Amino acid sequence: MSESRHGQGAALASITTLFFAWGFITVTVDPLIATLKAIYHLSYAEVMLTQFAFFMAYGVVSLPAAALVARLGYPRAIVSALAIMIAGCLCIPIATQADTFMIVLVAMFVIASGITILQVAANPLAAQLGPVESSHFRLTLSQAFNSLGTTLAPYLASSIMLAGGMFAVQSGAEVTAQQRTESLRHIDYAFLIIAGLIALLALFIWSVRARLTRATPTAAPGGRAALSEALASRWALLGALAIFLYVGSEVSIGSTMTNFLHRDDVFGVPLERAGKLLSLYWGGAMVGRFIGSALLRRVRAGLLLAVAAAIAALLCLTVSQAAGAAAGWAALSIGLFNSIMFPVIFTLTLERSTASHAATSGLLCMAIVGGAVLPLIVGQIADHAGLHAAYVVPLLGYACISSFGFAAARVRVASLDAALPGAGH
């Protein structure tokens, strides 16, 4: 038994690296957006197509990903997902050489497709690698590493993509073609480094594939039948809407944060510095998960979700009305209250849905496509009314999530199964 548990522990350690990897890559898109907006002279609506291409993969690839994992098994599916992510990263130098924003969008979709497959495979693995009674601990640990990735990525990516080239030129000065080319090369460096690290991770996972196969059961099939089951459940639909609004709000704020903090009427700092400050937004989510884990032992999950979302909505209201440092710190503080939302929405929905956990989880994962839709709306408002006004979109999103939390808190669940939170985001 001890040998079996040792094998599962080693397998979990291997899988935890995947949570870090997709957290890091997902948030690398945020400083990339600020970089692309400056280089290609894009409007907010145009540059938000980057997030649209990225998060649309969740809606398109989720069902095929479940079938792929069931067909290949966990280890082969994970390595395939990492290979797809490498291919997407290698598309970025092609895009910069061709000087074409459209190829960047293709690269984002390819990278996110790999991440979607990775999430479909890695989440059940983290839950199954050990005793049922400690499954919450394993997922919390894995999500902590996911949050570590989202915290480090903005600082490191901004140090590469928003340094030198045209970003070293003083405001109002003429940007030369050579400086613009240098900035494009910095994007190449960032994604080539990421591709190399993913390749090492793929080799590592492949080297321990036998251990993973021994430690885990066969991947369960899923598909349209499971999705139709979830669509028949009122709570599954409400939970999916909450996930849609949460991911859309979180991504919209993160995507515009660098440009927002760069504004003269907020912090007025250089883009590189603003991009590094974005780590505080995602770092707040990491710290908040540990605080939230402790609070959830004493406070009902629905009530805690409702309060956290209500505070996030008030912070968005502050950002929309205030200026200067108050607006900047209010925006960064939203990350702290985002922290518990995804896993708590996931858990509350699983507990109340009349559909199976597999069917409900599939619908909730597809709802991550909110990260594609809401940023487009935020971009349109930012172009016409400014970034401050654009915070009305996440404000309304958090208000709806708060209502979901209060409604869930009023519903008593007679028997709670091992309802597990989904992917860290």
Task: Identify the notable features of this structure and list them briefly.
425 residues; mainly alpha; Growth Hormone, Chain: A; 81% helix; disordered C terminus
What does this entry look like structurally?
- The chain is mainly α and 425 residues long.
- It has a single domain (2-410), classed as Growth Hormone, Chain: A, CATH 1.20.1250.
- Helices cover 81% and strands 0% of the residues.
- The longest helix is centred in the N-terminal third of the chain and has 39 residues, at 2-40.
- The chain is globular and about 60 Å long.
Provide a short characterization of the protein structure.
The protein is mainly alpha-helical and 425 residues long.
Could you spell the SSE succession in H and E letters?
A: HHHHHHHHHHHHHHHHHH
C-alpha termini separation: 34 Å
Radius of gyration: 21 Å
Supply the number of helical segments: 18
Number of E-state strands: 0
What amount of the residues lies in strands? under 5%
Q: Could you please say which CATH topology applies here?
A: Growth Hormone, Chain: A
CATH superfamily: MFS general substrate transporter like domains
Q: Report the top-level CATH class.
A: Mainly Alpha
How is the main sheet built? none
Query: Ranges with pLDDT <50 over ≥5 residues?
Result: 414-424
The proportion of residues forming helix, as a percent range, comes to over 70%
CATH architecture classification name: Up-down Bundle
Secondary-structure-based class equals: mainly alpha
Shape descriptor reads: globular
Total number of domains: 1
The overall pLDDT average reads 88
